[in-house]
Amino acid sequence: MKKIAIISGSIRKNRQSHKIALFFDRYITEMQLAQSEIIDLKELNFPIVEERLALTENPTQNQLLFSAKIFEADAVIIVSPEYNGSYPAALKNAIDMLGKEWLHKPVGIVTVSSGVFGGVNVNALLQILFTRLKALVVTASFPVPNVHQAFDEQGIPVDKESIYKRAESFLSEVLWFTEKFNS
Fold first, then answer.
1. Which of 55, 70, 147, 154 is positioned for an S-S bond with 16, CB 3.0–4.6 A?
2. How far, in Å, are 38, 154, 162 from residue 26 at the CA level?
3. Which pTM value belongs to this model?
4. What pLDDT, on the 0 to 100 scale, is given for residue 181?
5. What residues contact 76, with CB distance under 8 A and at least 6 apart?
6. What is the pLDDT of residues 52-61, one digit of tens each?
7. Residue 60, CB half-sphere, CA atoms under 13 Å: how many?
8. Residue 136: CA atoms inside 13 Å, Cβ hemisphere, count?
9. Domains present along the chain, CATH in parentheses
């Protein structure tokens, strides 16, 4: 069974995007699509990256664990809020820490916002960033507008039918990329 790492990309108090990471972890398991695991940047608490991990003299255990989990994953789903039109500093810090781990890795992008656009700006910026890192950006994305109203605190969607339909479509693309490029 394929492994999908879900990066919860915000470390803020009262973060809303983590609810979406919880949703995808539960959905992937419930539908038996793959093995999934949330990698929570808030829990890992990385220092500010001074150099890529491969060139770091004394990496932390959490940095090594993060590297191993991304390297071992068949695909990665990034769940990012949009902060001031971009991604959170903690997410950029974590992404920039790695190098070879991203090479040809299928990456699906999930963005959230409290407004109606669902993180369209951060989606575009993450596509550019991961293309530059030579990851394989999945062509489908999963924007979540009005995140405060769309999911409860446990990641349960208010409109289950609609969200499940969108999740099925998004994950079918993630899994297609995973099959085509991990053979």
1. 147
2. 10, 10, 16
3. 0.97
4. 84
5. 4, 5, 6, 7, 70, 105, 106, 107, 108, 135
6. 999 999 999 9
7. 13
8. 15
9. 3-181 (3.40.50.360)
